[in-house]
Specification:
The complex is a heterodimer of chains A (117) and B (423). By secondary structure, chain A is of the alpha+beta class. Helix content of chain A is 31%, strand content 35%. The radius of gyration of chain A is 16 Å and the shape is flat. The chains are: A alpha+beta (117), B mainly alpha (423).
């Protein structure tokens, strides 16, 4: 079964972090990614550019609106994801707990929906 | 025990009630789905009601019901032509079983105690909201009807039904496993199970009007679950601690409310009305729970209840022992309520002035804001110290935040005693 691990963290704090801390974070992410590749759990994963690089698209009354944003008032922003294979939720949450950002932010674990035809 | 050869409906339903929890747990394991398990079980009961009166009670009613339910589930899945993989799996098992049909079922091969333990951990999974955990536990493990659970928790039946549906679909969609957690996760997961059971108990124990019968049933179910957990996790001292705590608390049930429905304080209770059997069982459990390493919060609370239970009269209570136990409990579970109880025990052991000193130190405790028992307990100590004006002020403070009518009437009576000519 596949689960999406959505990584939410405070991007302002991340951007303000000292170089040494950023390097450490990157190193722990590399280590984590390697470990779930080796264990066969890793399906995909990416880091995202901050929300300042984001663009929102909506169609309202037939018109396409393209705007800067999002400017949600939330403390944590989506900063990356992993798509993993796990046998059940317990395995998935254990892997989620090892994502380095779990220590500072929140990892949302979402089962991937399977459509049966 | 001999069963009648051609049982009546009542006998069949009684067998079913006794076996229901174990059978359902096994069916959920086999079928991998709570709804499918519940439907299959209901169909198996119908079949039993038709067949047993003619054919007699089978030698192993549980195995019969499991087999019948599984066959019903196969039919159902086949009819729906859904869950192809699941169907093949169930059919293979059924075929395997037909081959060995001559062999009689061995109870434990069919329904293992671990099935119920797995289901407990599924129902009390931390990925479910606590109120969903409670509802699911009562519905699935205790077999309470949705309406009864709704009634007990004072929510509309439709709300409770929806809560159960959501919980079951989350289990399905997120694939919450039917499994006993591994050693690493076990302590935290056991804590979650104990918390759910204690919550059910407290919901039943909280004095309340109207719904008292169903509330009593909640206490009985919590104790039953506590017993089951002790049986399934014999190495878990806190399971024993919780069961002891519930038994020793429940033992006082009849004495804690008077004929007029008013709350009776522990010190004023008629101890002859305490349930001796529950006390005996509770005290025996404490010994085991306390001997197994550093005591946990439930075992300590049970030990405190045990000191009360041992005192034949209120003035024979060993308050020094209770104060000492609360001091240990404060270290294990540093909460405002525990600190308040510790202060109250110290007041009994060493006098109201010493207790008041500890209580005044709790004035800034954020967890006690709006909690009526802090001003109520202060008021009581001030009253005993003869500082009646301050006592009256504290009783009024407690009355301003109290939520329960029984407690309110008690505080009003006390206030009238210290401030008879209230201006």
């Amino acid at each position: 079964m596949q689960y999406m691990l959505l990584i939410y963290d405070n991007e302002k704090e991340m951007q303000a972090a000292r170089t040494g801390d950023v390097d450490k974070m990157m190193a722990s992410y590399r280590e984590f990614t390697d470990s779930i590749m080796k264990s066969g759990n890793m399906k995909a994963g990416d880091a995202l550019q901050p929300t300042s690089a984001a663009t929102c698209v909506r169609i309202r009354n037939g018109k396409t609106l393209t705007t800067d944003g999002p400017f949600a008032e939330t403390k944590e922003q989506l900063g990356g994801y992993y798509l993993i294979e796990a046998k059940d939720l317990d395995e998935a949450t254990k892997i989620a707990a090892r994502v380095p950002s779990a220590r500072t932010g929140t990892i949302e674990v979402r089962p991937v929906r399977v459509f049966t035809s | 025990m001999l069963r009648p050869v051609h049982p009546s409906r009542e006998v069949i339903e009684r067998v079913f009630k006794e076996e229901r929890g174990r059978i359902l747990a096994t069916l959920i394991r086999i079928l991998g789905d709570i709804d499918l398990g519940e439907e299959a079980l209901a169909a198996a009961l119908e079949a039993a009601l038709v067949q047993w009166p003619h054919e007699g009670t089978p030698a192993n009613p549980r195995a019969w019901l499991i087999r019948a339910a599984r066959n019903k589930a196969v039919d159902r899945v086949r009819r729906r032509a859904l869950f192809e993989e699941k169907r093949a799996e169930i059919e293979a098992e059924a075929a395997h079983e037909r081959e060995g049909a001559a062999v009689d079922f061995d109870d434990d091969e069919v329904s293992v105690p671990d099935d119920q333990l797995r289901l407990i951990f599924t129902c009390c999974h931390p990925a479910l909201a606590v109120e969903a955990q409670v509802a699911l536990t009562l519905r699935t493990l205790c077999g309470l009807e949705t309406d009864a659970i709704a009634h007990a928790f004072l929510v509309p039946p439709a709300t409770m039904a929806q809560r159960l549906v959501r919980a079951k679909s989350k289990i399905r969609q997120a694939r919450i496993p039917y499994a006993v957690p591994d050693a690493e996760d076990l302590p935290a997961r056991v804590d979650a199970v104990l918390a759910v059971i204690y919550l059910v108990f407290n919901e039943g124990y909280a004095a309340s009007s109207g719904a008292s019968l169903i509330r009593r049933e909640l206490c009985a179910e919590a104790i039953r679950l506590g017993r089951l957990l002790v049986e399934l996790l014999p190495a878990e001292p806190e399971a024993r601690g919780l069961l002891a705590l519930m038994l020793l608390t429940d033992a006082r049930r009849d004495a804690r409310v008077d004929a007029g429905g008013e709350m009776v304080l522990l010190e004023d209770q008629d101890r002859a009305r305490w349930d001796r059997d529950e006390i005996r069982e509770g005290l025996a459990l404490i010994d085991g729970a306390l001997r197994a390493g550093p005591p946990g919060a439930y075992a300590l609370q049970a030990a405190i209840a045990g000191v009360h239970a041992r005192a034949a009269r209120a003035d024979e209570t060993d308050w020094r022992e209770i104060a000492a136990l609360y001091a240990v409990l404060r270290a294990v579970n540093p909460s405002g309520v525990v600190a308040l109880n510790h202060a109250a025990a110290v007041a009994m052991a060493e006098g109201p002035a010493e207790g008041l000193r500890l209580m005044d130190a709790l004035a800034g405790d954020a967890s006690l804001v709006g909690y009526h028992l802090l001003p109520a307990a202060r008021a009581d100590l001030l009253r005993r110290l003869g500082r009646l004006r301050e006592a009256a002020a504290a009783y009024r403070e407690a009355l301003a935040v109290v939520g329960n009518d029984t407690d309110r009437r008690f505080l009003e009576r006390r206030l009238a005693q210290v401030a008879p000519a209230r201006s």
